Amino acid sequence: MKKARLFRGLAAVMAFLLLVTVAGSTIMFENSGMINQALNISTSTLVNTGEDTGANTLVYPNEYGTDIANKQTALMVEMAAAAENVTQAEEGAVLLTNSGGALPLSETDRVTVFGNGSYNSKYNKKKDASTVDAIPTMTFNAAMQKVFGEDNVNLALAENVYKDLTATTNKEVVEAPLSDITPYEASWKNDYNDAAVVVLTRWGSEDGETAMYAADGSRYLGLQTNEKDLLGYLRGLKGSVFEKLIVVINADQMMELGWLDEYGVDACVLAGIPGTQGFEGVANILAGRVSPSGHLVDTYAANSLSAPATVYAADNTPTWGNADAVTAACTDNNSGGDQINYYTIYAEGIYVGYKYYETRYEDAVLGRGNASGSAGSSTGSGWSYGDEVVFTFGHGLSYTTFDQELLGVSYNADTDNYEVQVKVTNTGSAAGRSVVQVYAQTPYGDYEKENGVEKSAVQVVGFEKTGTLQPGESATVTAEVRRYMLASYDSKGAAGYILSAGDYYLAIGDDAHDALNNILAAKGYTTADGMDCDGDAAKTHAWNQAGLDAESYKMSRYDAGVEVTNQFDFADLNHYGVDFTYLSRSDWEGTYPAAVQVVDATEEMMAELDTDWYETPADAPAVSDFTQGSDVTLTFATMKDVAWEDDEVWNQFIDQLTVADMLSLVADSNGSAAIERVAMPSAARGDDGVCIQQGSLKATGQSGMSWVSEVMTARTWNTERFEARGHMLGVEAAFCELNELWYGGGNVHRTPFGGRNMQYYSEDGNFGYIVGAHEAKAMQEVGIIYGIKHFALNDQEAHRESLSTFATEQTIRENYLRAFEGAFCEGGALGTMTGFNRIGLQYAATCKSLLTSVLKTEWAFKGHVTTDAFTASSLYKTHYLEELVAGIDYTCWDSSNITSAIQAAIDGGDGYILQCLRRAAKYNVYAASRSVSVNGLSSSSVVVTITPWWQTTLVAAAGVFAVLTVACAACYAVLAVKGGRRRD
Amino acid sequence: MSKLNLKGRGPGALLSLGCAALGVVCLAAYCVYGAVFDYFDTGVCIALLLAAACAGVYALAEGKPLGALNLVSAACLSFALGLFFLNSFPVWADNLNGITMYASRGGLAPVVAIAAVMLACILAEIVSCFLSRGKGDAK
């Protein structure tokens, strides 16, 4: 090959390599945080000068120390997490039925395992396998063998049939046909037949809303054909072959379980989604090593579509009637995409889950509100509670029985709490733990009807779990009830929270229905009035409030200088002139959302969808009004002791930061860069609460434990377990060198189909409030920011991007914000992530009412707020200035777009944007200074930025390729010219 | 004077001609893809157009100064591929994660197909750079 052509070819190769390297580097630098965490790279280090030797700089210790690079210590952390997961499963699995004491089995029983879910089980979010080598996944079958003995568990079907099947998805239930099963019946005909244990699975996931219907048109959450065949087959063998038929539900989507009696199921256990260790706890329950003490935190309806919330949700999510016009008119239309066209209406109002079924039940008993009409009835005839509900909120059995005696209720003015004293006695023959569940009923009178204030017949307001009680043993527990939870949001009359005039009831009960029956009994009703069971009036405490109280909660509980008032009028469709009626117990028949009301977006609505509302205020300060980059006198470490209210010192600190420094905090790539000038270390953030991802244990490079689902923890009804989860996940995060965990979360199981129900607490706002308060507190105590997500009303995965979400202010506050409020206001959570959805028509990350008026003002939140994952191709997420002004403090996974926009605005002289940036800097620094980021920092510490090796390599490679490209091209040019001259 | 002529063209010119043809196909495919899924990027389009033109002129025209056009073509194609890859990041991210988070439009198939054709063009043009253009090419 001639020289000139050789160099021309080499120049082409080098140019190709250069451009590929540049393109790849662009993406890699944009996602550097994720890459650094995958490669286990720290991007800053501390250098202590020793000037203040002896000072205790370990602000956030944990029991495992700070040597996060030590493999043995990391393994101890993971082993502790594994043990906690087993405990969580033991307390969080729910015994739904247990006819004739079918459970527990004997540990010497020989059993056969059925159901594809037994082999292709669901563990949690994405981690179907253990991420910790030394702690392998405890599969359901392995757990059964561990507890019952390897030889006592017949796994013929797993080994021969299920291993060839795929797992159930959120759209398709995978179960073997009976014809594949019966060929192996010899293995259980004469042996392994003390019990048939059937595992059934359902699924949902991120961006994977659970289907309402299966491919054959049947309801997905109901039994599918192959499952029916299997259960029918086993029912036929019961008595002749199998002594017992046990069903285990491996799902957090609320399956339809009205068939248990029909198929002769002796006992049913809700195992939920138990992570990679929890099946051991479930097996322990089956064998009686522990008595179940979990209770439902959702309603299990006979018909998964019978709740009014399903009308506008999941697969039923409607599009605008004039969708084409919306796409054409709106600039946020995702380049002609359809994401802007979906909306959901919380037409059910506050009546989600048990609040719907129980309230309608009470009204049916009382004969009011047309509750017995056919609207919403699954049978097509008059609505009846017995037709609709299989297991209600709070339901859960034990291997023993308990008697609960209400000793008294007192009000503590100092805490603004009621204290409900209950004596619990184990009246059975096995040891066990009991949960005292406290429910409230508040008045629903003329004022409420006139002002559209809805009231649930019962709502959970407190609970307390006993320790293990031996047979005959008693204990007295006190359940705290926040009086605040008895208040209702009145958006029309008082424009604030009210305590209604009339009769109040606090009731204990085995579940929500039992508590309501007790309340009805206190009102004098019996089965003769249509109740399905007589209640016990002695388990209630009642009082009367003479007049309406609109003052007690007129001012914020968290900042007495802030008045609580309407903030979400725009989220109600009626605000835009659309005539829409939300469900009201004043007329069930007339207000039930029988069919989707198709809404045409008006021009005003389309304008709001475009989110272009920011204009520099007339009274905006000038950029020159602020000082940036002043001499450093305060380091990051010193700010950990500076109170939020000390504006002078905070301003002094922020004056030290340059605009670039502050912008580095607004950017995110699974963390933020170090700011050397003020000795602020880099921060790394991970995701999420069911298994730490985008982060890995520094000692091993592996992800954290794959946890039992959040809802399984909630089902323990045990604040100790909530705190243990928050604590252990916090410790894991610390060993992953994170300072924040984006943690699901506070969204609500509005329907059984929510794809991420497994990550969220429950169907109830008050319950979520309590879980979040304890989890957040425990995680923050070990210095990990509890970044609860997805704030707010992001309760479905279907069409989650840009989904417009309409609801009344009462609904928003009492159901959906309440589930977050506990984490922020009692748990001290210092982080939150907004949702992909819109509040009304406003993108959650640009919703000033949500982020500033409520979160940062009314709730006095002092942490930082991030968007959900950013992408510039989702146009509705690109309103950077609106996001900053609304209250966003950093943008998840955006390291350049928002910072460029802010920089441009400041360069253009917009002092208001600079003011907002300073405000965001305060929130960012405040949150970080209350995290493990301050561990090891003294006032004399120096932070040194480390450039990751891969970045150096890429830059060097690009440089080398550039030089070689030029050199080869130059050589070619010289040789070509020379060759030409010779020819000439 | 330069003139368009295939007579006496070497393997480098022929390969470049093929590359030019493939480049035109690629350009057309990209334009359709960009229009359907609204991922049209003028930068990619111009780069592909330039690449095809340079490759074609290199193959068909004579003249000493034109001997570097296949190198220019290879560079333009590389630039187009790099930019196309950057622009299609949401599609890769959504599809490989199996979720909708990057507002991607269209599946991976058209992206992979167009990228594959671009890559084939680049490789052909790089090989062409090593080969003789025929009469008048550099030694």
From TrEMBL, chain A:
UniProt keyword annotations, A-Z: Hydrolase, Membrane, Transmembrane, Transmembrane helix
Listed Gene3D superfamilies: Glycoside hydrolase family 3 C-terminal domain, Glycoside hydrolase, family 3, N-terminal domain, Immunoglobulins
Pfam family membership, one: Glyco_hydro_3
GO biological process, one term: carbohydrate metabolic process
GO MF terms, alphabetically ordered: hydrolase activity, hydrolyzing O-glycosyl compounds
Domain Fibronectin type III-like stretches: 434-512
Name recorded for this polypeptide: Glycoside hydrolase family 3 C-terminal domain-containing protein
Lineage summary: Bacteria, Bacillati, Bacillota, Clostridia, Eubacteriales
From TrEMBL, chain B:
UniProt keyword terms in alphabetical order: Membrane, Transmembrane, Transmembrane helix
Keyword match Transmembrane: yes
Residues that span the membrane, as ranges: 12-33, 39-61, 68-87, 107-131
Protein name: Uncharacterized protein
Source species: Lawsonibacter faecis
Lineage of source species: Bacteria, Bacillati, Bacillota, Clostridia, Eubacteriales
